[in-house]
Amino acid sequence: MLSVDEKDPDRPIRWGVLATGGIAAAVTADLLRMPDAEVVAVASRTTAAAENFADRFGIGRAYGDWAALAADDEVDVVYVATPHSAHRAAAGLLLEAGRAVLCEKAFTLNAAQAAELVAIARRREVFLMEAMWMYCNPLIRRMTALVADGAIGAIRTVHADFGLSGGFPPEHRLRDPALGGGALLDLGVYPVSFAQLLLGEPDHVQARGTLSPEGVDLNTGMLLGWDSGASALLSCSIVAESPMTASVSGTAGRIEFDRGFFYPDRFVLRRDGREPEEFVIEGDRASYRHEAAEVTRCLRAGETQSPLVPLEGSLAVMRTLDAVRERIGVRYPGEASAGAGSGAGTGTEV
Length: 350
Prior knowledge:
By secondary structure, the chain is of the alpha/beta class. It has helices spanning 4-7, 22-31, 47-57, 66-70, 87-96, 111-124, 133-136, 138-148, 183-199, 289-301, 311-328; strands at residues 13-18, 37-43, 61-63, 77-80, 100-104, 128-131, 155-163, 204-211, 217-225, 231-237, 246-250, 253-257, 266-271, 277-280.
């Protein structure tokens, strides 16, 4: 892959945006505040939607189909903001065309689709990264460094939750199986990713969930276990608002995150025999600029994946989400019957 530095070391990174919903708008707004980024093109399934988005953000080119964006040689990287169900098709099209991709989380509908994207990226030698912005947050990075240095000893428990009482109607995308609806892929991916950032892929998975009439999970609890003796108690919901906090407890202390652990502005380190230590960052806690800065760094260095959000880590999270869905009985349209759905409500281990 040719690095951006080799093309022109002084120009900004040129971004394309695929999809025009709320998350696309939020990320685009942050990109436009970065001096080394330009949003030069947007694509949607309709020309009208793309043109409206382009007018809103002052974007020069608007495409009514994904292929046109994929063929735009003036685009360095594309941010994919479609529903989960379209990630495989959209990101695959872009990667095959040689476009670098930042793809919204959850990475895809399932681990098989994620593995296909990773295979394409490696074959084409093109940059690919899941948009797990939490991993790029400076405080999350500080937390992982402290843990790695032994600040709290050996990890024994992780707790994390993410629940919304949205009152989402049946026609909402979060209730639509065809769009990868449910709490797990939209919200549960954060607690799972938080735990696996610290402990890696679990050796054992237990889960129970409550499903909607449409067949997506409304409320899910997860217990992950590692042969090291560590465990993680995680939950997600689209029918009940939770504290949205997280903690990591070890043999010599613990780290606590307040509400909004996945985009923190502070955490507290509590160590045996010491006064609590507070770690804080200034600025907009909801900023997506940290992940965009990491993409920029990788492209300028000619790297095909980020060490902060490695592809193997994204694949491991997808395998865990698959295992949870298998246990709670959620299967999306088109998935093989041997996949998710064979262990509804059993709570059995992998």
